[in-house]
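Late entry, magnesium ion complex.
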Amino acid sequence: MSVQVEQLTKIYGTQKAVDNISFQVKHGDILGFLGPNGAGKSTAMKMITGYISPSAGKVSVSGIDMLKNPQEGQKAIGYLPENNPLYKEMFIKEYLHFVAGVYKLEAKKEAVKRVIEMTGLVVEQHKKIGQLSKGYRQRVGIAQALIHDPKVLILDEPMSGLDPNQLEEIRQLIRELGKDKTVIFSTHIMQEVQAICNRVMIIQNGKIVANDTVNNITQQIHGVQKIVFSMEKPIDINTFKALEIIDSIEQKGNLTYEVTGKDAYQLKKALFRIAVKTDNPILQLQDMGTNLEGIFKQLTHSSK
Ligand SMILES: Nc1ncnc2c1ncn2[C@@H]1O[C@H](COP(=O)(O)OP(=O)(O)OP(=O)(O)O)[C@@H](O)[C@H]1O
Ligand SMILES: [Mg+2]
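Prediction complete; structure with ligand written out below:
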C-alpha cells in the first residue's frame, strides 16, 4: 500500500477536526478528496505529510511510519500545501534550486529543468514568483512538490484559481503523474474528480462518509439522475410533480425543463408516456447522467 491511514484523529480544543479516519491508497491511484469547507481535508493532509502530528492514529507512506520516521517519509512525498505559500521575491529557478537543496539532491540543475518542463513553466521561467499570475504560481507550487521525484503526491486544492485552459493542462498533468505515482488531491469541484480520479473519498465533520471508486460510488449510492427535455407546448408541472418517480422538476427555459430522479430509464419512460397522453411531443431530451455533485450534496447533508 502506498498510503495507509489508521484511525487518524486530530483534536483542536474540543473539536475533532479529523475524527478517527482510516483508508488506504494504492500505487497508481488518483484519489479525489472532497468535502465542504472545514470538513478536515487540509488537517488530514497535513498529518499524512508529517506537517502536523496527529492526536491519535497512524500514517505510513511507502511503508515508512510517518510518526517514527517523518524525515525519511517526507522523501517519498511531494506536498502542495493549501494556499501555496511561496517566496515572492525569489526567481522561479532560484526557488526551485533552493527546494532541491532542502531535499539534498545531487543533480539540482537537472531536477529544476525537469520540473519546469513538466509543469509548463518554460516560458515564464526567468520571472520572479511575485510577478507570476495565480495559475503560474500554482504551477511553481506543483513543481516544488515534484522536485525530488516523490512516489506520493499530496496536493491541497491544486486547481484553485485556474482559468479553464490552465485547468485542462493541470488536469492532464495530474493524470500523467498518476501513471507512476500515487496522487491525493483535495478539491471542491466535483467535475475535477470525475475528470481525473479513479477513487473518491468524501469527508464531512472530520469523518469519512464515502470512500470508493468513482464508478461504484455513482452506481451504489442513490444517484441523482438528471434529464433535460423540451416539449412542443407548455406543460402542467403539477402532473409531473405528482409522479413518484420524479424527485424534482424545474423550468429551465421557454418549454425546457429539468427533471431529477433516481432511475433515468424510468424517468424517460414516464416522460414519453406523458407526452403521448397529453399530445405534447418531446422535441429534445438529454440524459445528463448521474452527477457526483448531487451525490456529494446527499452525503454531506444526510450525515449532519
Ligand atoms: N490550527 C488550528 N487550530 C484550531 N482549529 C483548527 C486549526 N486548523 C484547522 N482547524 C479547524 O479544523 C476544522 C477542519 O479544518 P480544515 O482546514 O482541515 O478543513 P478543510 O476541509 O481543509 O476546509 P477548506 O475546504 O475550507 O479548506 C475546521 O473547523 C478548522 O477551523
Ligand atoms: Mg483546506
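Residues 225-302 form a domain with the Alpha-Beta Plaits fold (CATH 3.30.70). Will revisit in the morning.
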